[in-house]
Every structure is written in C-alpha cells, then in structure tokens.
Write a structure and sequence with these properties.
Elements lengths: L6 E3 L6 E3 L8 H20 L6 E4 H11 L4 E4 L6 H9 L5 E4 L3 H15 L3 E5 L3 H4 L2 H9 L4 E7 L18 H6 L4 E5 L5 H12 L7 E6 L6 E4 L15 H12 L4 E5 L7 H11 L3 E3 L14 E2 L1 H7 L5 E5 L4 H7 L6 E6 L4 H4 L5 E4 L2 H15 L10 H12 L5 H11 L5 E3 L4 H9 L8 E2 L10 H11 L5 E6 H6 L4 H6 L5 E5 L5 H10 L21 H5 L1
Parallel strand pairs: 4-5, 4-6, 6-7, 7-9, 8-9, 11-12, 11-14, 12-13, 14-15, 15-16, 17-18, 17-19, 19-20
Antiparallel strand pairs: 1-2, 3-10
Helix pairs in contact: 1-3, 2-3, 2-8, 4-6, 4-18, 9-14, 10-14, 16-17
The protein binds thiamine diphosphate (TPP) and magnesium ion.
Thiamine diphosphate binds next to α19 and α21.
C-alpha cells in the first residue's frame, strides 16, 4: 500500500497544493497561524456574550446575532467564512446553522423565515459568486420589506478592490450590496462587530423594513480584541403619531361618500385596527399579494383586486395603509376628485406619486388606532357599505368559476391546510389565481413574492417559513419551471427534516411565457424548453427526481 496523496486548496490563491509538500511562504501560513491561535481561545470566549471578553470578530458577530434575537444562520460554507462557522459551533446552541445546497436557497430560506415571522433573519455566503447567488433573494427582500441580513465573506482586508485575482474576488462588493439593501457595511475589526450587527438590525426594522448586508474579510474574522457587547439593542426609528394630521385625515374621511381602504404589507401588524376602521366606515378593504390576511378573506368588507378595480372609479377617498398604491395610482389612475390618505412608515412614500390629501408617516397600527379614536369622536358609524359588495362578489364568483382546474386545486389545498397554515405563492398560473381566490385567514400566512415576482423563489422561501414555524403546516405551489430553480433544496428539506409540501403544476413548459407568445406574437414559439414529466430527450424526468 502506498501513502495516500492529498490535494488541498490553498486558501487565498485558489491553487491546488499537495498536502505537506507545497509550502506557501507568507500569507497562507499567517492565516492558518491566526486560525490556530483562534481555536485555542475560542471555546471560552464565544459561548456567552459577556462584557469585556477577548474574542475574535466571528465570535463577536455570532454573539451579537444572538443578542439581537437571531438564532439561525441559513448558510453555505466556504473557506472565507470558516471562522464564522467555527464561532457558531462554539456558540453552544445560541445560534444554529441550517445549510442549503445553493446560496440562493440560504437567502430565500432567510426571506421565508422573515416574511412568515416579521422578525429579522440572517444568512451567510462566501464572497463573489456566493454573494451574487443571493442577490435575487435580497432584491425580493427589498420588494417585500423583509428584514434579511446577509453576512458575506471577503478576501483578505488589505487586498480588497485591488484586483489581484484572489479566490472569489469581486470589485466593490459592499457597493453592489447597497443596490439591493438598506444598509451595507464592512466589519473591519472585532470591536465594531457588535455595533454593526445591532445597527443592521435596527436599520432593517426601521421605517419600511428591508434587507442589510455585512461583509467581513477572511483574515479579520480571526482578529482578536477585548470586545464590549452592548447591554441593550439599538432601538429602531419610530415616529410619534401626529395627532393634528390624524384629525385632518379624520375630517377628510368623515366627508367621504364612497371610501375604500387599500392595505399592503405595511399593514400586516395592524389587522384589528384596520378591521375596526373598515367596520366603522363600512368601507371595502382591498388587498392583493402582500396585504392578504390583514383582515380575513371571509370578512364581508374584504375585496380582491378585480372587484377593487371595478369600484375604483366611484371611490372618493382612499385610505392607503402600508401600500405603495402602485397599481391603483399608476395603473388605474387618479383625478382631482380622488383624495388619498396615506399611512406609511416610508418617509419618501408621500412624495412618490400624487401628493396625498394627508400623509401619516409612521407605523400602521398606532396611526389607524388614532384614526379610529378621532373618527369615533367626530363622526357617526355607517350602517351599510356605499357599494353593493354582494353583487360584486357574485360577479367575481361567476367570472372566476371558469378558471379551472386552478380553482379546484386551490379549494383542495385550502381544505387540507389548517387555518394558520402558511401558503407560499409562485410565479405560475395557480399562483396568479391564488392571489385573487385563495382564502387567507391570518396575516403572514399568504407569502407572496410581491412586485419582483421572481420565478423560482418559492421552494426555498417555503423551507425557511417551515424552519421558523416548525409547528405550522407549510405548502408551496410552483410550476415546473419555477421548481427547477431550487429543486436541489429537496436535499435540504430531507437533511433538516423540513416537512414542506410542494405542489408542482407540471405543464411541461414556461406556460405563462408561451401564452403571451401565442396571443401577442402570432404563436411564434421560442426559448421554451420542454421541462417536466413529458420530457424531451436529455431533459430531467421530474417524477424520478422528486421520487
Ligand atoms: C427571475 C425570473 N425570470 C423570468 C421570469 C419570467 N417568467 C414569468 S412566468 C415564467 C414561466 C413560469 O413557468 P412555470 O414555473 O412552469 O409556470 P407556468 O407558467 O407554466 O404555470 C417566466 C419564465 C420571471 N418572472 N422571473
Ligand atoms: Mg410550467
């Protein structure tokens, strides 16, 4: 028997070396020496976040995540982040790793966990290609206002942006992250790790929530210092309720003949307040993707997008709660007779489209509560809606009944899914139907990709929703095209025992695209592979893969 030869990767230069026989002269050794020193002192330091403990940057980061309520890192490992994983190992369960099979899976899992809980979640990826693999999920987190924190590795600190050709080197990674997040910073030393994590969490949950990115160079992860952990978390911004503006809004609303409430993702924590407002005014409450579940679908005042569209020309006051109002203002249109009362935590929202009659800037729940109090003091409750909603619902029921078999599938899923079960929508025919016709009973149980509508987001997002809500049933619908984006995460589901039901609607095509080509482009079909069960030669057989 000869001696086994081992080929291993050299950390920063991306070259293969023969173990023990291919010495590097400087950086590689220095890095591993730091890792070794780090290993010796790590165990005592990272287990618990205490003030003034000597720890390395990775340990300080992990302790800060735990201190800020983040107990799971959805992650895919790699050399640049090994010290971070080691710190998680040493955290003795304060933070756990759930690993995926592709970086997009890690970020989508964090996104699903954030959308289903409303709480900040984190994922980790190596720099360059690893980071770029997560950017579609970050963009969706921005679009769906989800507090998702990406913790991203970097090449050695002194070489960042110098174009040496390091493994996974990328120009201006943190600048790139700024395009898909609210807050992006580099952690440059152990001292600033806790503050930057705390600040990222505060930014992610301030105003309109959204994602953040922290990067850290591979050598900095192991730098040690005496680190002071903040005793308290950094408070997110909050804006006091402007009672003068509330009274002005109440006056506008009290004079309305045909008011309508439109709710978006910013209203998810204001369900009871919105329902009271709607009942006082007998105003229809319109929700589409993100606002579904703010009030239950079965509430007599709940209306969907097609009905809302039919009512729109007659509406004289719209109360927009946590919604961009994009479809209504930019697609359905406005005129001088329509007054808008905007409640939005986004400081820039009022100026974005038509100037509202009144802008209430801050969280939805306290503002709608204040509006309810002001209306109760100054106006009489209405006894019946100004619109014939029964007739509208009958019209919609007749129209949608032709949408088969999607409707029957959705009915079957709703029957099987418990009231608090989570439904994850996708960019597929049955997903589009679900946005109009799937009854939703509670906030954060209808998880929709929002305006990004990025194909293939659903399965990983559903896995994250399940990881964060182990006691709830989670079902994802997807087309065959969308499912193939993340099919490898079936292994993640099995490995981590994440029992998500995914219903794949296999029409063996990018059906949505095909329909458009048929209807608008004279049936000139191009770039539409056969995908699924009815496979063309060389394509995967989904039935075998899933089995
Ligand atoms: C990231 C991304 N790429 C491309 C698209 C364009 N697109 C929308 S639907 C669709 C086809 C979806 O196919 P499938 O998942 O099989 O669903 P089906 O339309 O067949 O129901 C495509 C390619 C998109 N929305 N997002
Ligand atoms: Mg399809």
């Amino acid at each position: 028997m000869g001696t086994a030869l081992r080929i291993e990767g050299c950390y920063s230069f991306g070259c293969a070396t023969i173990a023990g026989e291919s010495p590097c002269r400087r950086a590689d050794r220095a890095f591993w020496q730091e890792v070794d020193q780090s290993m010796e002192t790590a165990t005592a330091a990272a287990a618990k976040a205490t003030n003034g403990v000597r720890m390395n940057t990775a340990e300080a980061t992990v302790a800060a995540l735990a201190d800020n309520g983040i107990d799971t890192l959805y992650a895919l490992p790699g050399l640049h982040n090994d010290p971070l994983f080691d710190a998680v190992y040493n955290s003795k369960g304060r933070v756990r790793i759930l690993h995926a099979r592709h970086e997009q899976g890690t970020a989508y899992m964090a996104l699903g966990a954030a959308l289903s809980t409303g709480r900040p979640q984190a994922y980790a990826a190596v720099p360059g290609p690893g980071f770029l693999n997560t950017t579609a999920a970050l963009l969706s987190a921005e679009g769906t206002c989800a507090p998702v924190l990406g913790i991203i590795g970097q090449i050695p600190q002194r070489d960042i942006d110098r174009n040496h050709g390091h493994l996974h080197e990328i120009r201006d990674q943190i600048g790139m992250a700024a395009h898909v997040s609210k807050f992006s910073r580099r952690i440059r030393s152990p001292h600033e790790a806790p503050r930057l994590v705390g600040e990222a969490v505060a930014r992610m949950t301030s105003g309109r929530p959204g994602p953040a990115v922290l990067e850290c160079a591979m050598d900095v992860w192991t730098h040690r210092a005496v680190v002071e952990m903040p005793a308290t978390a950094i408070e997110p911004d909050s804006y006091p309720v402007d009672l003068d503006a509330v009274r002005k809004a109440a006056d506008v609303i009290a004079q309305a003949k045909k008011p309508m409430i439109v709710v978006g993702g910013g209203a998810l924590d204001a369900g009871p307040q919105v329902q009271r407002l709607a009942e006082f005014l007998q105003a229809p409450v319109l929700s589409y993707r993100r606002g579904r579940g703010v009030i239950p679908t079965e509430h007599p005042l709940a209306v969907n997008l097609p009905i809302g569209h039919r009512l729109w020309p007659e509406v004289d006051v719209v109360i927009a709660v946590g919604t961009r109002l994009f479809i209504q203002e930019l697609q359905w249109g406005t005129d001088k007779d329509l007054k808008v009362v905007r409640i939005d935590a986004d400081l820039e929202a009022p100026a974005r489209h038509a100037e509202p009659a009144v802008a209430l800037i801050g969280d939805a729940a306290p503002y709608v509560e204040a509006l309810n109090a002001a209306l109760a003091a100054s106006a009489k409750p209405r006894s019946a809606p100004a619109f014939d909603l029964a007739a509208q619902n009958a019209w919609f029921a007749e129209r949608i009944s032709r949408l088969e078999p999607q409707l029957s599938y959705l009915r079957a899923i709703r029957r099987a899914l418990p009231e608090d079960g989570i439904f994850v929508d996708e960019v597929t025919q049955v997903g589009f139907a679900s946005r109009l016709a799937f009854p939703v009973h509670a906030p954060r149980t209808f998880i929709s990709p929002g305006y990004q509508d990025n194909l293939g987001w659903g399965y990983g997002t559903a896995l994250g929703a399940k990881a964060a809500n182990p006691d709830k049933a989670v079902v994802a619908v997807t087309g065959d095209g969308g499912f193939l984006y993340q099919m490898s995460e079936l292994a993640t589901a099995v490995h981590h025992n994440l029992a998500v039901v995914v219903v794949v609607f296999d029409n063996s095509m990018f059906g949505n695209v095909k329909r458009i080509q048929q209807e608008r482009y004279g049936n000139r079909i191009i770039a539409l592979p056969a995908l699924g069960w009815e496979t063309a030669p060389g394509n995967p057989d989904l039935e075998d893969e899933v089995a």
